[in-house]
Specification:
Blueprint: H1 4-18, H2 26-36, H3 43-69, H4 85-103, H5 108-120, E1 123-124, E2 131-133, H6 135-148, H7 159-163, E3 173-174, H8 175-198, E4 205-207, H9 208-218, H10 233-248, E5 255-257, H11 258-263, H12 265-271, H13 283-288, H14 293-306, H15 316-319, H16 329-339, H17 355-366, H18 371-381, E6 388-389, H19 391-407, H20 415-426, E7 434-435, H21 436-441, H22 445-453, H23 455-462, H24 464-479
Helix pairs in contact: 4-8, 5-6, 5-8, 9-10, 10-14, 10-17, 16-18, 17-18, 18-22, 19-20, 22-23
Amino acid sequence: MYSGSSDGESHDTSTQRRIPPASSMLWVRNLRRYIGSGAGLGSEALMELETKRILLEIFKEKQQKSQEAGTIPSFYKKKPEEGSISQRVQRLAKYRFLKKQSDLLLNSDDLAAMWNCLRENCVIDDGTGAEKMNYEDFCHIASVCTEQIGPKCRRFFSPSNFMKFEKDEAGRIAILPFYLYVMRTVSLTQARIDMSELDEDSDGFLQSQEMESYISGLIPNLAQLRDMPDAFTNMYCRIASQKFFFFCDPHRRGKACIKKILLSNCLQELMELHQESEEEVTDTEQAENWFSLTSAQRICDMFLALDKDCSGSLSKQELKEYADGTLTEIFIERVFDEHVRRGKSGSGNSREMDFDSFLDFVLALENKDTSEGLTYLFRCLDLQGRGFLTTADIHSLFRDVHQKWIEGGNYELCIEDVRDEIWDMVKPSDPLKITLDDLLGCKQGGTVASMLIDVRGFWAHDNRENLLQEEEEPPEEESQ
């Protein structure tokens, strides 16, 4: 009655219905339990399983902290402890990275080869005689330099670099500015690598001792400092380092940003000492360069001459002799109030100016036209600490200058006239007060500060026309 095929189909159907799901089988459950415990896994699989577990725990912990903190982002990351594995790994990674970057730099032989390639493949301008190259020459020189030097010079020959330079009517650029650009880029990159190596905590900032170490390493390579006595090296590094911190650490946190150091005029001024021909550099130019050996010795001699009691610091009475005593007493008092720390005892008599504070003092007076120098002086001029100067402040400050002016045998002055002249020079945005921004914006803030703190500065302003005539007379006499 029933065919074989139909009987077979019904039998298969009943068999499939009777097979239980795999999850319900005892041996499947036991196998999964066995594998989940890790007892049946190899060492590599166990390590991977443990790694996943640890990462999952870290993720859950961070997720929980993030939920507890709400939307406040993390702004502080604890530095690794001294001698820890984390610190060692960080230092090793930093060393390898800086080594790799250093290997990519052009050395002196590479720079000389590039200069030869530029001169051999350039075109002489008929009108000016300058050595120039167009973009086709630029690409050809790039190929030649790559063959001779290697691929590390290729980045300098990008189209964007070619467009940075001034072009003539024929679309050509001079080879000298391009070569100077390459040299400066290499020099700044090398300086950044050297500073980063000294940055112990790798936070992008240098502390004073790290900056002094960097300057000490530069001394053998600076032509004008090679003959420096060894006994004076530490003092020189201290003097040189202080200028970097005066201009690159305005908030006086004790550390200067490496990027700000590289972009500052201080580093460029220091690198000027590379010049081999010292006879071409006059004594005046050496004295004007803070980093010259002449200037450093001048600063030391000045401090030692003022330090009458040889205590290693200056009292108010000793500092009054600075610049032949032309600074006003009220200014000296304000300098000690704003920029000199109190002694350990806390009494007024114990407050004296140490050498570092003296360096800041000299830097401010010799750089009155800079924002950093004027900021230093403005804090002293702001008698009430309100952030601005009133007519009463100007009157109080100039009173001491007026007294020294009369004692010097000069003509009688009207303080109100000088006050009005200062207001006309500054042209403050608020006619009732002068702010630091007003002094910086008028471009005569240094002159105004000199008039209020130094009788010699006021004399120079009062006789500015005669001084200009004296500067113009010597060339006329020589021509006659």
